[in-house]
Amino acid sequence: MPDTSTTPVPVTAAAPSAAAAAEEKLAYRLFTGADDRAFCERVSAALAEGYVLHGSPSATFNGSTVIVAQALVLPAAIASADAAVANAVDELDGEEFGADEAFEGHA
To answer: How far is residue 59's CA from residue 76's CA, in Å, rounded to a whole number?
Structure first.
């Protein structure tokens, strides 16, 4: 089965071009397939590229083969998402309590 993906994260800070777009890494990847050496090699290759495991692996049996799945994310994507959530919380706090009483430092 193909990898499932979301928003790409640029590898470099340079302006996007056709060549740069080809080098973008996906922020999230979901590997699925038979529980065999090839699956483990695909996950290992992604780990070597800088991805980290996200959540627990999943396994099911289709009647003849064990099918596994493992999500991987780029650490920069996690940091970016965490910062966005913290900023949103700060903005909500500011609206609810006023600028003088807003909670700072959720990040």
So the answer is: 27
- CA dist 20 and 69 (Å) reads 29
Task: Please give the helix or strand (H or E) that residue 91 lies within, else none.
Answer: helix 75-97
Q: Are 90 and 106 in contact (CB under 8 A)?
A: yes
Question: What is d(CA 103, CA 39) in angstroms, rounded to the nearest whole number?
Answer: 46
Structure tokens at 82: 């965490």
Q: Is 71 within 8 Å of 54 (Cβ atoms)?
A: yes
What is the distance in angstroms between the CA of the first residue and the CA of the last residue of the chain?
37
- Joined together, the tokens standing for residue 99 give 């600028």
* Backbone Cα Rg of the chain: 19
Domain spans in the chain, listed from the N-terminal domain onward: 4-73, 75-107
Per residue in 19-76, pLDDT tens? 555 478 999 999 999 999 999 999 999 999 999 999 999 999 999 999 999 999 999 8
CA 18 to the chain's CA centroid: 23
